[in-house]
Amino acid sequence: MLTCQRVEETDSFVIYKALNLCSVLSLCLRLPLRKQLSGINVVFYFSSIVFKSAGVPSQSANICVGIPNLLGSFVALLLVDKLGRKVLLIGSFLGMAVAMGLQAASASSLVASSNEVHFSVGGMLLFILTFAMGAGPVPGVLLLEMFLGWIRAKAMSVCMAVHWVTFLNSSSS
User: Fold this and answer.
1) What does the buried/exposed string (b/e) look like for 47-66 if buried means 16 or more CB atoms within 10 Å of the residue's CB?
2) In whole angstroms, what is the distance from residue 103 CA to residue 108 CA?
3) Mind spelling out the 3-state secondary structure of the chain?
4) CA–CA distance, 20 with 13 (Å, rounded to integer)
């Protein structure tokens, strides 16, 4: 006959739980930090200047910024379970690096002056699209999935506090 015995929490088990929680919490604190320090706030703040230099009116510029953001969010919604969170995050950060490469090329002498604006606008829109496909939504999804129920609320509040403090710090400077 099979009986269930209560497992006593020994000191080593408590230490193991604490160490495991610390490693998960460390990872979950770095995700929102990387999200905010990726540069998305700078791209949004200076997008109007980039579009203005391209001759695009302000209202059209807002629509042009919103479209890749919306499209990237829908792509993330469709692919997050098919490809996985890790693939979306890595692809997103690689895409953002390529977009910043386009931005840097537009500011350098490598690009003809007639194409500078196209590279700058294209890099900015690609950055927004790739951010919305992974680095934007995936950290929030991962944070919810990584913590056990007994600690989820407290751990999420710490992670979101890091997220907002980093946001306020990056947007005020």
Assistant:
1) beebbeeeebeeeebeebbe
2) 9
3) CCCCCCCCCCHHHHHHHHHHHHHHHHHHHHHHHHHHHCCHHHHHHHHHHHHHHCCCCHHHHHHHHHHHHHHHHHHHHHHCCCCCHHHHHHHHHHHHHHHHHHHHHHHCCCCCCCCHHHHHHHHHHHHHHHHHHHHCCHHHHHHHHHCCCCCHHHHHHHHHHHHHHHHHHHHHC
4) 10
pLDDT in tens, 33-57: 788 878 888 888 888 888 888 788 8
Specify whether the CB–CB gap between 132 and 71 falls below 8 A: yes
Residue with token string 């540069």: 39
Summarize pLDDT for 108-146 with one digit per residue, the tens: 767 667 777 788 888 899 999 999 999 988 888 888 887
Number of alpha carbons in the 13 Å side-chain half-sphere of residue 56:
17
CB atoms within 10 A of CB 98: 13
CA distance 78 to 87: 13
Model confidence pLDDT, tens digit, residues 46-98: 888 888 887 888 778 888 889 999 999 999 999 998 999 889 999 999 999 99
